[in-house]
Amino acid sequence: MPANGAPTKITQGSKTKGGIGESTLRPDGTLKVTGEFAYSSDMWHEDMLWGQILRSTVAHAEIVSIDTSEALAMPGVYAVMTYDDLPTDVKNYGLEIQDTPVLAHGKVRHHGEPVAIVAADHPETARRAAAKIKVEYRELPVITDEASALAPDAILIHENRDDHHIGHVPHPNIVHRQPIIRGNADEAAKKADVVVKGEYTFGMQDQAFLGPESGLAVPDEDGGVHLYIATQWLHSDLRQIAPVLGLPESKVRMTLSGVGGAFGGREDLSMQIHACLLALRTGKPVKIVYNRFESFFGHVHRHPAKLFYEHGATKDGKLTHVKCRIVLDGGAYASASPAVVGNASSLSIGPYVVDDVDIEAIALYTNNPPCGAMRGFGAVQACFAYEAQMDKVARQLGMDPVRFRQLNAMEQGTIMPTGQPVDSPAPVAELLRRVKAMPMPPERQWESSEGADVRQLPGGLSNTTHGEGVVRGVGYAVGIKNVGFSEGFDDYSTAKVRMEVINGEPVATVHTAMAEVGQGGVTVHAQIARTELGVAQVTIHPADTQVGSAGSTSASRQTYVTGGAVKNSCELVREKVLEIGRRKFGSYHPAWATAELLLEGGKVVTDGGEVLADLVDVLDGESVEVEAEWRHRPTEAFDLRTGQGNGHVQYSFAAHRAVVEVDTELGLVKVIELACAQDVGKALNPLSVIGQIQGGTTQGLGVAVMEEIVVDPKTAKVKNPSFTDYLIPTILDTPTIPVDVLELADDHAPYGLRGIGEAPTLSSTPAVLAAIRNATGLELNRTPVRPEHLTGTA
Amino acid sequence: MRVNFTVNGRPQEADDVWEGESLLYVLRERLGLPGSKNACEQGECGSCTVRLDGVPVCSCLVAAGQVEGREVVTVEGLADYAKQRAEHGGCASGACGTSLQDAQQWAAKGQDSQTGEGTELSPIQQAFIDAGAVQCGFCTPGLLVAADEMLERNPNPTDADIREALSGNLCRCTGYEKIMDAVRLAAARQSEGV
Amino acid sequence: MDFLRPASWEEALAAKAAHPTAVPIAGGTDVMVEINFDHRRPEYLLDLNRIGDLYEWEVGEDSVRLGASVPYTRIMENLRAELPGLALASHTVASPQIRNRGGVGGNLGTASPAGDAHPALLASGAEVEVESAERGTRLIPIDEFYKGVKRNALQPDELIRAVHVKKADGPQQFSKVGTRNAMVIAVCAFGLALHPETRTVRTGIGSAAPTPVRAKAAEEFLNAALEEGGFWDNGKIITPSVAKQFADLCSAACNPIDDVRGTASYRRHAVGVMARRTLTWTWESYRGARRTTEGAA
Questions:
Q1: What molecular function does GO assign, one term (chain A) (predicted)?
Q2: Which of A124, A262, A688 is closest, CB to CB, to B18?
Q3: pLDDT given for residue A621 in this prediction
Q4: Number of alpha carbons in the 13 Å side-chain half-sphere of residue A327
């Protein structure tokens, strides 16, 4: 497809009802609306105990002593465990760097770090017992930002680091550093007619999934344990859990329970090991359910960031160069920080053509809450800053901000700052055109015959304005997100597919370890199986570790990679079915030997549509099963000095237009509409695609105007770990979100699809900020923007 | 302490209840009704919404002892509750919830084995499935109870009415658009049915 | 923990007398949060749900006697004419589910400066009816009720039975700032009531001082300015300078703190804006009512 030509819509229909491209309904929908769907917090077992975690009340301290005797003596308490009770030499875990203690050892490094665990017969007993554990701390100075982390006398958050990043970081309090140098930014800057510099701050966002961390560990008779858990990646959990328990992976059985949202926050372990330890210690099933307060301490957050940018452009609107420095606060433990650094650096200039760049991204170790994966993963922070810069440059040039973006928009064939060519459609200019072309929402919708409807005004039900001070603003943004795991990671998925005849009907069973966290992967797997195997009935087997890894439900990768694995395994099953058919019926019709055969509508058919046999007759009594791994094309690590390398698999693009109304006197914002245009490659399930885009958009809105975990810079303690003070958008804060879906196939991906879950979270935030700037004329270099920032009262 | 009350039309007794337990805990952990969800336990998310003597409340903020002798409807009882309402004059002709509803349920039946096929649903439950308003589903039970009650009071809500009525129910997955669609759909079907 | 379930008001008073540390629980919207989050483990919970009297209201000659447990939803729906300020404030309380359970008695009992009912009660004028088994009933003027951050004038053996709120004799408004458009705790709030019968204006400020407060200097200034300019009679538009000075004095009545919900400086600013706007709205409404009356006469 010509990059600037008219985009083509690709519709790959499937002839079996309920196949890909249709908006089939969720297989778990009925269970979810009747309350019968079993989430991890709903697990219950006869005789089970309740686990409770005692967490540090200070952010940085040496542990002088822990006294558990009073807690242990309480009636109803079955076990109290500290670091000293860990069964093996493996006492740490971590996604990439095993730097996170299962229970604090000698030191705590952030507020809310687990220090001891308790099992008791009632949650209240467990809470009371935990409260009776006496921990004596000797407090240490806290490191909370770059200056304190890199100060000459700074305490090292982790002494004796031996991870694979320590060799190239300039300071042990830096987890990872990734520079990207391409061309010569200093030279190119000389050609610039306009140079714009900016400093930006991105606040700490929480995933705030609605189902807090929870699970049930049941001891097995063979000395192992069975964990029912809500996670994003069963096998990654397993790899981290088993060594700490001193068990082979085969004795740690994991079954995915219902997951109440994830958004990156379940990529790391939370209560998994604790529940297993207590179950093995007591010989009884142990359930742990965090409450909302604990949930804020129980998972990593989105990295807060400081971003320093310089953009140059010629007066005809072409970017000359970009320099940037992104400082991510990784908090006390590494989690996914290194990969977040890789994303932030490699995607730091956005979906634009810039030949000369000088980029650096680092993640710090501090005593702030640990940060890691959240939807958008490093690309979100950068997008907020580069899109603000793009508006500033456009303003300086006197150009329309959308026009300026389109002039510099990347397209298929553009070379990334990493040197990697973009080798599939990159319709950045087109997405901007589409989102701009959408009809504008009418003005003053709040006016009615009965006066102002406050529900449609800034402040909403709080009745702060009847129209006074209200100014409308419009803003645009576009973003680029990588899909799948990058930088040379062996990112594969496994799918086991079985086909057999049950009650006279051909049935396919799809078994993967994919974590369904709400995204609708189970719906899509069934659709793929119907398309590939021509059956109406598909059973989705519960996800567990009895099948190979499906990788993580993150990085917008599941439909691509596990979907790809399901497709691949279905194809292998199809070949076997056809072999059986040839064996049984080959002699009856010459087409068995020659034609391209398909499975459609429960039959074997030729590509000309001629029916050769019923699947029921082919399979009669036999079943076919295949378990196979599937990989997307390999990627490379980024060079540690230059950042060059084909690090990414695929890119995903979305653009937003935000229309806001701001009460400029009170600094309150009502987002009126957040229109989105996104290229999805191929919408396997259009209804789910729209749902993902609208959900991602709303999370971007949240961090634009309200969401922030506030950490006291003096103590590194979290000040708002509750839904009273960590606010996420209600239905009255969320506007209509019209979505324009573009389907430009990526030839490298199954069905041409593109991972979609994260891109809309990127551009939503800067679009809202741009609209607020447009309404107020203020600079606004931080997000979330709060009323005090809009009223000069910060 | 012991607490006796009615849940979804059935008398229930919970024993050995700790005095600080919430109605939510009793429903979930003592009565085997985990449909109401524990997402914040501070009245800031609506996931645990149930009807207490007909009124939508956050069950996490009702002390177990306070429900002695009272009637509770949870998401597990919503379909029955809606059916009874339809049969007892909740809609004039008594037709809603029967033929049209049945037809819609048939049309919406999934093709998979995990659908809980054959389960009778209330119109709002069916609409949530059909409109794609369910993703992770953790907010869904509370939203259903709240939305059902709103449609009972206000069968023809404006968008602003829907948003106001559901402003106590957080959803983190959907961006609420499909939830709006679902409530509009349920309202439309309800009015067609009358 | 013991759970006390009095069946009548007398039983409740007796229980409170016997166990002065008992924590009354009605809507549960404050108490249960504290229990769920392990912030509080009272020896006794005193359930007031079974005392029907607390859920009733009577509209009298001059005031409404509002039972302590009348849910905010009922106030919004039934007392909009008599208590417009409180009805507006009720509509801003948390969420529909909370408004179905919580009542003014809870706001008064908790006495948080962020309670939404307080500014409306201060502006309209109210008395809190409290009672103990030993000393019987007393009425505490609302201005004397708030004693400190989350402290009120109740004695340990007393329970709040009702609040007597003056019926509106003129327009009232309530406005609250939060960083979300629904289900939000006040960053700060403002209530204003015009009392044409006495030719006075009363105010209430929430969440901008250790307790809910009236902006008395602002009220006095405005009362004088309105009197002087003959505004009550001539129904003229209040001049911007008067409105501004009133707003500034309301800001000055604040004694706010910086916290996670907002800065002190913002709170002062926002109270001023809300004061000016609510004054404008109420005065416009007063002028409109006057015109209608004159037109009829």
A1: oxidoreductase activity
A2: A124
A3: 87
A4: 16
pTM of the full predicted structure?
0.96
pLDDT of residue A268: 98
Residue C289 pLDDT exceeds 90? no
List helix spans (H) across A586-611. Answer: 591-594
Q: Which CATH architecture has domain C172-296?
A: 2-Layer Sandwich (3.30)
The Cα–Cα gap between A414 and A428 comes to 11
C277 contacts on A by Cβ (under 8 Å): 464-466, 468
What top-level class would CATH report for the domain B78-193? mainly alpha
3-state secondary structure of A777: coil
- pLDDT score at B98: 30
For chain C, the average pLDDT equals 96
Please identify every stretch of chain A with a pLDDT value under 50, giving residue numbers as ranges: 1-14
- Its ipTM equals 0.96
- Cβ-Cβ pairs closer than 8 A, B with C, add up to 92
Please report all neighbours of A, defined by 3+ CB atom pairs within 8 A: B, C
DSSP annotation of A781: -
Q: Which residue has the tokens 């690590």?
A: A637
Residues 61-90 of B with CB under 8 A from A: 74-76, 78-79
Beta bridge partners of C57: C66
**Cβ(B111)–Cβ(A28) below 8 Å:** no
Average pLDDT over residues B79-98: 66
Structure tokens at A361: 């991204």
CA B180 to each of CA A571, B146, B164: distance values in angstroms, whole numbers, following the listed order: 39, 13, 11
Query: What structural domains does chain A harbor?
Result: 29-37+492-631 (3.30.365.10), 427-485+648-794 (3.30.365.10)
Query: Mean pLDDT, to the nearest integer, of C131-146?
Result: 98
pLDDT in tens, C12-32: 999 999 999 999 999 999 999
Residue A352 in contact with residue A387, Cβ under 8 Å?
no
Reading the block at residue A307, the tokens are 């971003």
Measure in Å the smallest separation between the Cα of B50 and chain A Cα atoms. Answer: 12
Residues contacting A449, CB < 8 A, separation 6+: none
The two tokens of residue B107 are 């049309």
Chain A hits for C280, Cβ within 8 Å: 468
Which of A516, A511, A513 minimizes the C-alpha distance to A545?
A513
What is the CATH superfamily name and number for domain B3-73?
Beta-grasp domain (3.10.20.30)
Q: What is the dihedral of CA C153, C156, C157, C160, to 10 degrees?
A: 40
Beta bridge partners of A305: A202, A328
Lookup: tokens for A730: 């209600």
